[in-house]
Specification:
CATH topology of the largest domain in chain B: Rossmann fold
Largest sheet of chain A: 6 strands, parallel
CATH architecture of the largest domain in chain B: 3-Layer(aba) Sandwich
Structural class of chain B: alpha/beta
Number of strands of chain A: 10
Mean pLDDT of chain B: 97
Largest sheet of chain B: 7 strands, mixed
CATH topology of chain A: Rossmann fold
Low-confidence stretches of chain B: none
Radius of gyration of chain B: 20 Å
Mean pLDDT of chain A: 83
Helix content of chain B: 25-40%
Structural class of chain A: alpha/beta
Radius of gyration of chain A: 21 Å
Distance between the termini of chain A: 60 Å
Number of strands of chain B: 14
Number of domains of chain A: 1
Shape of chain B: globular
Strand order of the largest sheet of chain B: 3-2-4-5-7-6-12
Distance between the termini of chain B: 44 Å
CATH class of the largest domain in chain B: Alpha Beta
Strand content of chain B: 15-25%
CATH superfamily of the largest domain in chain B: Thiamin diphosphate (ThDP)-binding fold, Pyr/PP domains
CATH superfamily of chain A: Thiamin diphosphate (ThDP)-binding fold, Pyr/PP domains
Oligomer: heterodimer
Number of helices of chain A: 14
Order of helices and strands of chain A: HHHEEHHEHHEHEHEEEHEHEHHH
CATH architecture of chain A: 3-Layer(aba) Sandwich
């Protein structure tokens, strides 16, 4: 069945037999047509995942889509349609494709290293790792300009690294040192670099959405072309702030990108278990007239191109847009969670077979973007950068106790 | 000096800020076309336009949070909550965002934002609309909390609030909007943390803020008739609190009664009593008395509500008990 789906012409809309999903497909098609970007091949794998949703009869007798397990595309296709694509990307040059790979390795190694130092007691508090979701954050953030703003959630290390924040200072913040970006007073969940327009790192689910709307409002007020991108997970979509902010952004036509990283679980709760329409977000934004782009969050090029289209439109027109990237965290919700209580091992394994750190370098090789030797050099340079960051964090001093009283007021 | 109302003083403060600083804008529910629930911003939309005067949906969390976001990148929003009771809906944005943002970013971000909100009970609005959460918000570090008691202070404190690079809770007791008082034509500001001695006296120190000061004035008149010469201290801001002025007064009088118009338990006066007894124990001739609203939800029935509300009689009664000690 998966094969059959992939054999379809990439641009053919697929009807799911559910009215709303058909409309959603049309909406995407219209968007793509408007912007001349063939996203269909990129979102094909997402559509195949959608097919895996099995209707479920709820206790009220209403049939709802469920997402109790996910069935990614066959790993043999690496999540993209080789036949449809002559090049890896029409828009990105090789240097950029390779840069994204380096970021991917850097985030993965950074997160693994944080985990090790959590076990050693050097990193404390709650530690939420981005392992598995790297392609999403990199694809999204790489489409932004330095003047654009980013606001994100507590699983924020990956976004910070993708934005180019200093790994030394992120690691020092993990260690609680005074050289950390927040001088050791923010921690893992509160990474900020205002100079790079990276406005946190917010740890109350959904709370960052109004803040981002305000930053977008300031851009509208000052008549800039700056785009604000706010990240949140599927869990945040059940918060009131999500709906309030979508409405506000639509009423005021704010230049904002709502970027949902749908990793299918809000902590231990499968999205299909806690959300009326399960994992289907296609028409949830319809009430606010906010256009939706859905994209395979495991495919960094697809995310980049979809986001670029969104960024270009928001920059030109100033109205909000919603991107859903379907992705998966390979690890638990936080370091305290083994991640195996609420999801089947088989589901995790299926997603791990689409690990962007496996599929993306293979694509770089397949398309002749980079050689194995070049990829090896990148991995070595990342290892050196991480070692240096740990050394920097280790050798930095704790804040002086008097510094507890600094920065309470401006 | 012209005499204007408390409402007019706030209107004046908002108007001059909009006119003098391009980064200032105001937003809230029904502040534009409707003119504000308490008519503070009447005519503003017509005069300043919808960029500077933004009507919001009834989404307190979203528009308070949007204010924080706009402030974090350099604007100076003045956000109006229709009632401080509605701050509950936006509490996360006020506390975790407005107040904590600077600290948890290691000082990278400023939040120059004013949250104006009518406060107080006494007009039969029942439990949900009658609360005085300035006492809760005053506890939160990273924010200031101003509570004017008269038109002159309202203007001076509002100017300071708008110029502050920090978030400010500006609590306006709804009973005061029609209150009249002299306001100087000369420009002035009133700093936070500087209490005002409303009336000098030698026998007793009375402390409150906002509408509570009016209650103390009535009580002081009654006490004067009994030969007790009371000094009244108007705190003007609950964060920071001007402990020095209170302590100095208590060192002079040896006795103090402190009035919360919020519920007595957990009110701000328990903090002030604690600080004063630590610093002025040797000067005290008796326990520091505390008067506040009774510890029940606010009832609708007029008789019940008036009984719950602290009034001048309660202050006089507390003073008698203190003096009889």
């Amino acid at each position: 069945m998966q094969r059959a789906r992939l054999d379809r012409a990439p641009s053919a809309p697929i009807s799911f037999g559910i009215e709303s999903k058909f409309e959603f497909t049309l909406r995407n098609a219209q968007f793509i047509a408007l912007h001349g970007i063939d996203l269909c091949a990129r979102i094909e794998s997402f559509r195949v995942m959608e097919q895996a949703e099995k209707p479920r009869v709820s206790t009220t007798g209403i049939v709802r889509p469920a997402f109790t397990e996910s069935t990614p595309v066959s790993p043999s296709t690496n999540g993209y349609n080789v036949k449809a694509a002559a090049t890896l990307s029409n828009d990105l040059d090789n240097a950029e494709l390779v840069r994204m790979y380096r970021l991917m390795v850097l985030i993965r190694r950074f997160e693994e290293t944080c985990g090790q130092h959590y076990s050693l007691g050097n990193v404390r508090g709650f530690l939420h790792l981005y392992i598995g979701q790297e392609a999403t954050g990199i694809g999204a953030i790489s489409a932004l300009e330095p003047r654009d703003y980013i606001v994100t959630h507590y699983r924020d290390h990956g976004h910070a690294i993708a934005r180019g924040l200093d790994t030394n200072r992120i690691m020092a913040e993990m260690f609680g040192k005074r050289t950390g970006l927040s001088k050791g007073k923010g921690g893992s969940m509160h990474i900020f670099d205002a100079a790079k327009h990276f406005m946190g790192g917010h740890a109350i689910v959904g709370a960052q959405l109004p803040l981002a709307a305000g930053i977008a409002l300031a851009q509208q007020y000052q008549d800039t072309d700056v785009v604000t991108m706010v990240f949140f997970g599927d869990g945040a979509t059940n918060q009131g702030t999500f709906h309030e902010t979508l409405n506000l952004a639509s009423v005021w036509q704010l230049p904002i990108i709502f970027f949902m990283e749908n990793n299918l679980y809000g902590m231990g709760s499968a999205v299909g278990r806690v959300r009326h329409r399960g994992a289907d977000f296609s028409d949830a934004m319809g009430a606010y007239d906010v256009d939706v782009i859905s994209v395979d969050g495991m495919d960094v090029v697809a995310v980049r191109e979809a986001t670029q289209a969104a960024v270009d439109r928001v920059r030109a027109q100033g109205s909000p847009i919603f991107i859903e990237a379907k992705t998966f965290r390979f690890v638990g919700h936080s370091f305290a969670d083994p991640g195996d209580q609420y999801r089947e091992r088989s589901e995790v394994d299926l997603w791990r077979r689409r690990d962007p750190l496996e599929t993306y370098p293979q694509r770089l090789l397949d398309f002749g973007v980079a050689s194995q030797a070049e990829l090896d050099d990148i991995a070595a340079s990342v290892d050196a950068e991480i070692d240096a960051a740990v050394e920097f964090a280790t050798n930095s001093s704790d804040p002086d106790l008097s510094e507890a009283f600094d920065d309470v007021y401006a | 000096m012209p005499e204007i109302t408390f409402r007019e003083a706030i209107t004046q403060g908002l108007a001059e800020a909009i006119e003098t600083d391009q980064n200032v804008f105001i937003m809230g529910e029904d502040i534009g076309e409707y003119g504000g629930a308490y008519s503070v911003t009447k005519g503003f939309l017509e005069k300043y336009g919808d960029k500077r005067v933004k009507d919001t949906p009834i989404s307190e969390a979203a528009f308070v949070g949007a204010g924080v976001g706009a402030a974090s990148v350099g604007l100076r929003p003045i956000v109006e909550l229709m009632s401080i009771s509605f701050s509950l809906v936006a509490f996360d944005q006020i506390v975790n965002m407005a107040a904590n943002l600077r600290y948890m970013s290691g000082g990278q971000i400023k939040v120059p934002m004013v949250i104006r909100a009518p406060t107080g009970a006494g007009v039969q609005l029942g439990a949900t609309h009658s609360q005085s959460f300035e006492t809760w918000l005053a506890e939160v570090p990273g924010m200031y909390c101003a509570c004017p008691s008269n038109p002159s202070d309202a203007l001076g404190l509002l100017r300071t609030s708008i110029k502050s690079d920090n978030p400010v809770i500006f609590a306006e007791h709804s009973h005061l909007y029609g209150a009249r008082g002299e306001v100087s034509d000369d420009y002035y500001e009133i700093p936070f943390g500087k209490a005002r001695i409303d009336r000098t006296g030698d026998d007793l120190t009375l402390v409150s803020y906002g509408f509570g000061v009016r209650v103390l004035q009535e009580a002081a008149d009654a006490l004067a008739a009994e030969g007790i010469d009371a000094e009244i201290i108007d705190l003007r801001s609950l964060s920071p609190v001007d402990f020095d002025t209170v302590v100095a007064s208590v060192q002079k009088t040896g006795r103090a009664v402190m009035l919360d118009t919020a519920r007595k338990t957990g009110g701000i006066m328990s903090e002030i009593v604690s600080e004063v007894q630590e610093r002025a124990m040797d000067w005290l001739d008796g326990p520091i008395m505390r008067v506040g609203a009774k510890d029940v939800p606010w009832p609708y029935n007029r008789g019940l509500e008036q009984d719950i509300l602290p009034d001048a009689d309660d202050v006089v009664e507390a003073t008698r008990r203190l003096i009889s000690v």
